[in-house]
């Protein structure tokens, strides 16, 4: 691999603009700080106000299965950014509430970084093939898999998925649609 052009941790890698100390974090090539910032800005702009999102007066039991399906579809489309931030919040909660999982993530990052440093010194060849960045990630994952297994990462993943489905599913099912949404979804008689 060529020195700086293929180095995902090089100082030329884009940094998160305006993020203070976080702006000094180096990101792998292909994942620029501008991409992350743009994605987060689009999500933030599409967020519905949290006050109306959790307004208890807007929750009721659907009258039938058809109304439940309509609510689910409409609320998922309306509140997709709010749901995204709920999902990210649950991931962060799960990671920071488990110190062993933090250690496992550190081992994975450290293994990837050490493998990457080895490839900068000379090409890392396994079974006659040079390791690409994808292969390096796979090798780091293989090295850190036992630590993730001991940390209970599988249970954490399923907890996050289950909690996300429970929170988002119940909100989407029981949150009433706005009156303009109801008029739009009504079918004309034939």
Please write out the topology.
Layout: H1 33-46, H2 50-53, H3 65-78, H4 80-96, H5 99-121, E1 125-126, E2 129-130, H6 133-151, H7 153-174, H8 179-185
Helix pairs in contact: 3-7, 4-7, 5-6
* Overall helicity: 55-70%
Q: Write down the overall geometry.
A: elongated
Oligomer: single chain
Count all strands and give the number.
2
Put simply, the count of helices is 8
User: Averaged pLDDT, please?
Assistant: 77
Main beta sheet strand tally, sense and closure: 2 strands, antiparallel
Q: What is the strand arrangement across the widest sheet?
A: 1-2
Q: Radius of gyration in whole Å, from Cα?
A: 23 Å
The arrangement of helices and strands along the chain is HHHHHEEHHH
How much of the sequence is in beta strands?
under 5%
Tell me the structural class: mainly alpha
What are the low-pLDDT stretches, counting only 5+ consecutive residues below 50?
Answer: 1-26
Explain what this protein looks like in three dimensions.
Helices cover 63% and strands 2% of the residues. With 190 residues, it is an all-alpha fold. A two-stranded antiparallel sheet has the order 1-2. Helix 3 crosses helix 7 (153-174). Residues 1-26 have low confidence and may be disordered.
The gist of it:
With 190 residues, the chain is mainly alpha-helical.
Key phrases:
single chain, 190 residues, mainly alpha, two-stranded antiparallel ribbon, 8 helices, 2 strands, disordered N terminus
């Amino acid at each position: 691999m060529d020195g700086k052009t293929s180095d995902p941790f090089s100082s030329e890698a884009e940094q998160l603009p305006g993020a203070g100390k976080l702006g000094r974090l180096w990101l792998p090539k292909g994942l620029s700080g501008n991409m992350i910032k743009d994605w987060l800005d689009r999500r933030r702009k599409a967020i519905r106000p949290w006050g109306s999102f959790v307004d208890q007066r807007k929750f009721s039991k659907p009258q039938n299965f058809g109304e439940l399906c309509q609510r689910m579809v409409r609320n998922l489309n309306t509140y997709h950014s709010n749901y995204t931030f709920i999902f990210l919040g649950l991931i962060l909660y799960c990671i920071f509430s488990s110190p062993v999982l933090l250690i496992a993530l550190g081992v994975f990052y450290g293994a990837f970084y050490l493998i990457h440093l080895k490839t900068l010194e000379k090409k890392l060849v396994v079974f006659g093939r040079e390791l690409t960045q994808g292969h390096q990630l796979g090798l780091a994952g293989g090295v850190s898999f036992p630590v993730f297994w001991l940390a209970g990462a599988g249970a954490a993943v399923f907890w996050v998925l289950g909690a996300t489905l429970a929170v988002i599913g119940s909100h989407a099912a029981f949150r009433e649609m706005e009156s303009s949404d109801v008029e739009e979804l009504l079918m004309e008689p034939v």
